[in-house]
């Protein structure tokens, strides 16, 4: 086994989710002793049996080869030379940042810390959290920053389901409170990541990088979502236009509209920047507008369905609407912040009968198969572009009596579907 760790240090990772578990397995692969601390007992049990609790090809392959010790016992933190905090940073129903998981994790670590340990916050936070939230917790526990503990921030970068970019090769940025802490953090990440590790001059800069990355994507997606609405009114296929614009070899980056944005980054991180800037007296009007546009897409998708049903004089009230997909992105079992849930809420307002199927989230589906979903549905909304759904064509829809399909990811062949006299509508096409 190839390893970059020469002295067999112990790494403890707090939170074994989509970020923490791949990191834990990678650290083990690179020669570290690894302890994973997780509150979910079922997840701990599966990991200790060398079974991935997450639908992910990387984890399914690596966990049996590089097993880690998973536990619910916080006292295990005392054994660690390096502690990585990988807990969620959600927002509440009013889009206010909820830092309780970060606070709780820091309290746990500060109360069980080995002297001289490196503690790295990987959770996505707004600029200032390390200084205003994390540092005071460790100082309250009488730890001296730069002596008893070295604190750094390396914002997580992971792209679930991506066959190319994963925890082993995505470049990272890192910031810390002290020069020695920065060196320690950079050295650790260089030992587990093949991509470049960029040190930042200030820990606040490292925090800002992640929210800027995801705010950039949110803004660009909001632009094309608004274009989709505009082009619907002008009878222009927005996907064709974006594909055409993408032939320009510079100064254009293609983003595409959809029925909504999900996941734990793009729909969440901009709010952390918006709220922190507000405390500093600045109003992020552009970001707030982008969030408003993107949050409107699930409702807009249902409006498209209602319009198309009206063409054939069918009411949405009482119509059986099949939702193809629950997960927020293709070929994963992650439904965090998925537009599926807002689409469901919008359909309920119109008193539609809702059924669903997701091959990666069968326990949350009301149908056992795509076949059953199609057989029972009068209309379909494609929510997630899973590979299993890309086989849906006009012939299949016609055979099952589906009258309307709303392609929420613009991934189906609209001409083929229309050829079978099934009404097709994409987002902006």
What does this structure look like?
It is a single chain. This protein is an alpha/beta fold. The protein has helices at 20-29, 41-48, 57-62, 100-110, 129-140, 179-192, 203-234, 238-245, 269-279, 285-295, 297-311, 339-349, 370-376, 394-399, 414-419; strands at residues 10-14, 33-37, 69-71, 82-85, 117-121, 149-153, 172-176, 197-199, 320-324, 353-357, 379-382, 404-407, 423-426. The strands form two sheets. Strands 3-2-1-4-5-6-7-8 form an eight-stranded mixed β-sheet, with helices on both faces. Helix 6 links the parallel strand 7 and strand 8. The protein is globular, with a radius of gyration of 23 Å. The mean pLDDT is 95.
């Amino acid at each position: 086994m190839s390893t970059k760790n020469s002295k067999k240090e112990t790494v403890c990772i707090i939170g074994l989710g989509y970020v923490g578990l791949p990191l834990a397995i990678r650290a083990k692969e690179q020669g570290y002793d690894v302890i994973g601390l997780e509150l979910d007992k079922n997840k701990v049990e599966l990991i200790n049996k060398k079974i991935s609790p997450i639908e992910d090809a990387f984890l399914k392959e690596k966990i049996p080869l590089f097993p880690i010790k998973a536990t619910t016992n916080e006292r295990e933190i005392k054994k660690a030379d390096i502690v990585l905090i990988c807990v969620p940073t959600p927002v509440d129903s009013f889009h206010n940042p909820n830092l309780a998981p970060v606070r709780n994790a820091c309290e746990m670590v500060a109360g069980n810390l080995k002297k001289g340990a490196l503690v790295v916050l990987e959770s996505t936070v707004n600029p200032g959290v390390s200084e205003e939230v994390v540092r005071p917790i460790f100082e309250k526990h009488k730890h001296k920053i730069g002596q008893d503990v070295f604190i750094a921030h390396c914002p997580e970068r992971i792209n679930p389901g991506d066959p190319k970019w994963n925890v082993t090769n995505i470049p990272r940025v890192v910031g810390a409170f002290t020069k020695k802490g920065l060196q320690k953090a950079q050295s650790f990440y260089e030992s587990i990541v093949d991509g470049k590790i960029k040190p930042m001059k200030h820990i606040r800069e490292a925090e800002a990088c992640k929210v800027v990355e995801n705010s950039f994507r949110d803004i660009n997606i909001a632009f094309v979502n608004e274009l989709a609405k505009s082009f619907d009114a002008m009878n222009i296929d927005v996907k064709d236009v974006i594909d055409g614009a993408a032939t320009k070899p510079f100064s254009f980056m293609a983003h595409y509209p959809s029925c909504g944005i999900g996941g734990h980054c793009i729909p969440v991180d901009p709010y952390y920047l918006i709220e922190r800037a507000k405390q500093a007296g600045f109003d992020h009007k552009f970001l707030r507008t982008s969030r408003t546009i993107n949050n409107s897409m699930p409702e807009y998708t249902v409006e498209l369905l209602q319009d198309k049903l009206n063409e054939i004089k069918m009411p949405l009230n009482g119509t059986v609407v099949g939702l193809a997909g629950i997960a927020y992105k293709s070929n994963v079992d992650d439904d965090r912040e998925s537009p599926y849930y807002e689409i469901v809420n919008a359909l309920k307002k119109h008193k539609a009968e809702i059924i669903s199927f997701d091959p990666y989230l069968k326990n949350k589906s009301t149908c056992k198969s795509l076949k059953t979903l199609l057989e029972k549905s009068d209309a379909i909304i494609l929510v997630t572009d899973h590979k299993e759904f890309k086989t849906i064509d006009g012939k299949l829809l016609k055979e099952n009596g589906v009258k309307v399909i709303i392609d929420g990811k613009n991934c189906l062949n609209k001409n083929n579907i229309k050829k079978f006299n099934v009404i097709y509508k994409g987002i902006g096409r």
